[in-house]
Amino acid sequence: MRAIVIDDEALALESMVRLLGRLGVEVAASFQNPIEALQSEWWEDVDAAFVDIDMPGMNGLELAARLQSNEPNLEIVFVTAYDQYAVSAFDLAAADYLLKPIRIDRLRTTLERLVRRRPLPRPEKEAPPPVLCCMQDLGVAGQDGKVIEIAWRTSKAKELFAYLVHARDRAVSKEQLLDLLWPDIDTDKAMANLHTTVYQIRQSLKAVRLPIRILYTGGRYRVELEGVALDFELWEAALNQAVMGMDEGQLYRLLLEGYRGDYLQVEGYLWAENERERLRIKWLQHATEQGARLEAAGLPGDAIRLYQAIQERFPIWEASYMGLMRAYDQIGNAAEVINQYAKLQRVLDEELGLAPDQEVAEWFERWTAARGMA
Predict the structure, then answer these.
(1) What strand order describes the sheet that includes 48-52?
(2) CATH code, 158
(3) Domain co-membership, 87 together with 194
(4) Are strands 96-99 and 75-80 parallel, antiparallel or unpaired?
(5) Are 205 and 194 in contact (CB under 8 A)?
(6) Between 372 and 263, whose confidence is greater?
(7) Which of 284, 345, 294, 372 is CA-nearest to residue 320?
(8) Residue 364: how many CB atoms within 10 A of its CB?
């Protein structure tokens, strides 16, 4: 069950959120300001609202009436310290009426009543979890493994969603999101943009049937992935397992085929740079080590494919040129050995103004001398 809580008293709000959590209810958002609670994006896929009646500005009865006019199926549970509102409350077809302080056994009875009034659907046959793709670009893995693009209404919607996924282990304050996405406009307009953008995200996720929820509590936003897997986490876990089990074939496939691209590479968000670089370096480290093992095992063809992939991603990584020269030498392709060394000289000179490392240069000199090319 998903619920929203509205109470102008901070302690009462926190207490209700905590009690609902203990009883297994997901609190999608909580508000002290009833006006803010009317923002439409929060009420989709919500089963019930726990509304304090006695609030300044707009009391709970008025708020509930407006909510039910927009969301006829929304269950309302009124919460108050005064029972004088009971008749008015039930005139609004409230599901229940709770008196403060809330007792957990009484709240449990209310939740049981809500379940009877709106039976939960039976779970469908278990299916593999959907996969959100963040390697190279943002999308969803289809049944055939191909990445399906998510249709975003705006670039801000895409970035806000990506940032919340990036920060999935922590809640992000609305102030931080405003500074990130709308730093140059006034606060009221930025807040309106934030609410609109959250609504757009929810619509885009619904279109691709991703059961990801955006929750709002205590002025902070976070995503709940609801069993949705992340491709880069799956890749890293599989890589670690292959390394620990010394599964060379699986390791090779993960390095050459499993690493679809750098983390949010196409989007290029600056706030993703640390994670992007961490995964890039991890891939580079294991790819370089695996290339050397393939050489030692007498598999120069496989080593060449891996070194070429390294060179494409890290064009100034000298180890890839050195590995390719050794591998081409193993298969007797002298022309490609010469080509790789010339290419290394050109790239280093153009990018860094440097010559090849002494060890690489000495290897090439010995190689050319042995073939009478010096």
Answers:
(1) 96-99, 75-80, 48-52, 2-6, 26-31, 213-217, 220-224, 172-173
(2) 1.10.10.10
(3) no
(4) parallel
(5) no
(6) 263
(7) 284
(8) 22
